[in-house]
């Protein structure tokens, strides 16, 4: 089993109201040193055999990202990852 | 400016119908070697000064993740990252 992680984020020029809503809530938590919050998607694709980045790129391109408004990055993830919580 | 990335994923025991829908669509693309697809959130928090992981953890805990059904991981991201597309 091998995992490819695809991160899909709105292009920088596209407004992100969801992230803006989180950013607007921060002063209530006493956080004043955050310049921006952007919220996107993280997709974990588990391959049965070896990780196939070309395959993953095709999946991301056709099913996961909207190229008009989103960019994506991909990487093979080595496990285990350190869990923060 | 420093960036903290928070990845929020459903706990492994929680069903992910959105990821399942993508997995179910893969055979139509000719992809048959994917065992599972899980879809979560990636949040980029830009700090005005140094990245503050403790602050980011508080933000994630209170605003970004639902601890009943989600786990999150955090890391400071060094830039620039290689853009895949």
UniProtKB/TrEMBL annotation, chains A, B:
Its main location: cytoplasm. Keywords: ATP-binding, Cytoplasm, Ligase, Nucleotide-binding, Purine biosynthesis. Pathway: Purine metabolism; IMP biosynthesis via de novo pathway; 5-amino-1-(5-phospho-D-ribosyl)imidazole from N(2)-formyl-N(1)-(5-phospho-D-ribosyl)glycinamide: step 1/2. Its EC number is 6.3.5.3. It catalyses: N(2)-formyl-N(1)-(5-phospho-beta-D-ribosyl)glycinamide + L-glutamine + ATP + H2O = 2-formamido-N(1)-(5-O-phospho-beta-D-ribosyl)acetamidine + L-glutamate + ADP + phosphate + H(+). It comes from the Bacteria. It holds the Pfam family PurS. SUPFAM superfamilies: PurS-like (SSF82697). It is found in: Cytoplasm. InterPro entries: PurS, PurS-like_sf. PANTHER family: PHOSPHORIBOSYLFORMYLGLYCINAMIDINE SYNTHASE SUBUNIT PURS. Belongs to the PurS family. Part of the phosphoribosylformylglycinamidine synthase complex involved in the purines biosynthetic pathway. Catalyzes the ATP-dependent conversion of formylglycinamide ribonucleotide (FGAR) and glutamine to yield formylglycinamidine ribonucleotide (FGAM) and glutamate. The FGAM synthase complex is composed of three subunits. PurQ produces an ammonia molecule by converting glutamine to glutamate. PurL transfers the ammonia molecule to FGAR to form FGAM in an ATP-dependent manner. Part of the FGAM synthase complex composed of 1 PurL, 1 PurQ and 2 PurS subunits. This is Phosphoribosylformylglycinamidine synthase subunit PurS. It comes from Dactylosporangium darangshiense. The gene is purS.
């Amino acid at each position: 089993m091998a995992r490819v992680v695809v991160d899909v984020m709105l292009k920088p020029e596209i407004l992100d109201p969801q992230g803006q809503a989180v950013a607007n809530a921060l002063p209530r938590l006493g956080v004043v040193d955050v310049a921006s919050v952007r919220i996107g998607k993280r997709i974990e694709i588990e391959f049965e055999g070896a990780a196939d980045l070309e395959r993953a790129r095709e999946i991301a391109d056709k099913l996961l990202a909207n190229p008009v408004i989103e960019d994506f990055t991909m990487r093979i993830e080595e496990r285990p990852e350190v869990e923060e919580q």
